[in-house]
Amino acid sequence: xxxxxxxxxxxxxxxxxxxxxxxxxxxxxxxxxxxxxxxxxxxxxxxxxxxxxxxxxxxxxxxxxxxxxxxxxxxxxxxxxxxxxxxxxxxxxxxxxxxxxxxxxxxxxxxxxxxxxxxxxxxxxxxxxxxxxxxxxxxxxxxxxxxxxxxxxxxxxxxxxxxxxxxxxxxxxxxxxxxxxxxxxx
Length: 186
Fold this sequence. Notes:
Elements: H1 3-6, H2 12-26, H3 41-64, H4 69-85, H5 96-101, H6 103-112, H7 118-131, H8 134-140, H9 142-155, H10 158-167, H11 174-185
Helix pairs in contact: 2-3, 3-4, 3-6, 4-7, 7-11
Organism: Protopolystoma xenopodis
Keywords: Coiled coil, Nucleus, Phosphoprotein, Repeat
Pfam families: CTNNBL
């Protein structure tokens, strides 16, 4: 019986356990830093799975320890590291369609633009800025890059999310001022 059949809503903990079990069943290792030349379809899928796993772990920790930031800090650091690791995808725009075909990572990235921790939102902005770098998009061609652009911009309402994110940034902070610059650059 599934969660939906039982009438119960899945909890973040239950979802995280399912993701972990899925990883174990498939012998999927945590992604390690991958080089530009070693990025292939499997690496994109591993990064997407790591993003999902770490986002769920962070949501669970934030919910469980809402009044104790030190207890969820490690999950935020891991999430931020995963977002930074995903920047390797920017060097491989021909693989964007793989990321775009997986709706969960795209929706997670867009949702993380509104994360309570602005460092996480800024890491997403850094990633998007790199992914949408005009020279890389042009070199890969529209056929390779349009699926991701469509998934984020048209279906995911990226413009609205970035405008909302701009409203909460403090330009007197160096990092957030850079985030404003990157938002406008996207």
